What we know:
Number of domains: 3
CATH superfamily of the largest domain: Spore Coat Polysaccharide Biosynthesis Protein SpsA, Chain A
Mean pLDDT: 93
CATH architecture of the largest domain: Alpha-Beta Complex
Structural class: alpha/beta
Number of helices: 10
Radius of gyration: 24 Å
Helix content: 10-25%
Largest sheet: 6 strands, antiparallel
Amino acid sequence: MLIPVLIAGGTGSRLWPLSRESYPKQFLKLFGDHTLLQHTALRAQAIEGAAAPIVVCGEQHRFIVAEQLREIGIANATIILEPEGRNTAPAAAIAALHAQKRYGDDAQLFVMAADHYVADAPAFGLCAVSACAAAAQDHIVTFGIKPTRAETGYGYIQQGAALDACAFTVAAFVEKPDEALAQSYLDAGDYYWNAGLFLFKAKTFLSELARFKPEMLDGVRVALEGASKDLDFIRLPPSFRVIESDSIDYAVMERTARAVVVPMDCGWDDVGSWNFLGLLGADGDGNVSHGDVLFDDCSGTLVHADSRLVAACGIKDCVIVETKDAVMVIDKSRTQDVKKIVSRLRAGKRSEAHQHATVLRPWGSYETLSLGTRFQVKYITVKPGQKLSLQMHHHRAEHWVVVSGTAMVSVGDNVQMLTENQSTYIPLGVTHRLENPGKVLLELIEVQSGSYLGEDDIVRFDDVYGRAPAVSK
């Protein structure tokens, strides 16, 4: 039994402004019609003998994960919610304990990040299947990606002696090198990129974690025993927050004698910076564009336009990314420094660090169109059959105008149906609820007025999504 484990808790800050804390890169459609999470799940499901996946993600992303899996026909995944990310070792331990209880000691787990790119999915799957033999012999398999360039952004694995036809002992794990050292690894031929992919039996990984990080494993056991069922999710308790944060590499792989490496050649990349997207689909001048873009006398430049025309003239080796609420311009040689921009946004408590102009909710979405000192105008969509929580506000009143679709509106004890061009008023302090009883998307304009317009001015009385009170609607 091979159980794919998708780790979907990253923030992808190096791909800002597209990737943000509330909607990071694993949920973006960067390649074709599927998101990175969807590509990963489909790739995992295609592996021979693969069971339904386990997905470990943050609590705030639970509905995004469930919806994106549903869109590709995966309805039987186990989704485990972390109250706070503690890196890959605790996440893998939670998955291993869950799989061990459900499938037994010998269940094999294939742990992978949900935000990576793979060009050759069949080769990826065949490599995973071939690694199962080594895992069955109580080895912990890591996968070494055949390097195509002297990359300084990855750790490396040096191949040792052959274990069988496809697996080798690990001679050394190497930290991210400088450019000269990276080139020497490429020339040597026995070094591989460390992709952070792992395959092991549940019992094997847990026994090694018990040797090297017993307190971590004890904490994970306590957290899983205290987990609760929340709709279709497994919610870990707050105690998970105090578990040591560490990666599988540091916690286990660099200490264990059971580590082996299986070389993998599948066109892998961790999509760790804008430079990678700048390599795909370049024109004769080395330019790459997405959206409404106009180049004139440019070379080696990536422009991603999300919502409007972006024209570039006389620019060389730059990355330009435009979204509804932010524009980033950066030299290609500095794309790793995007994280510095995000750090400054966080320090300044800027909303652009963590959410997009359009904010997704399990029932639909909202976008702020205009914001003043005592007013705010939003565009709201509600999916068919969905409804917002029953709620009230202490500091604002609201007007709703239906643009299209049908709205069932509850204001106090009054329930009414509104259709296109009809409106209603919700006074300050009155309980209300919005629902879409129809079969098409409900679109409306909300005009708020009051002394305070923050999303935390919500008292929630009832919610079909099980969300806690006094959080964003």
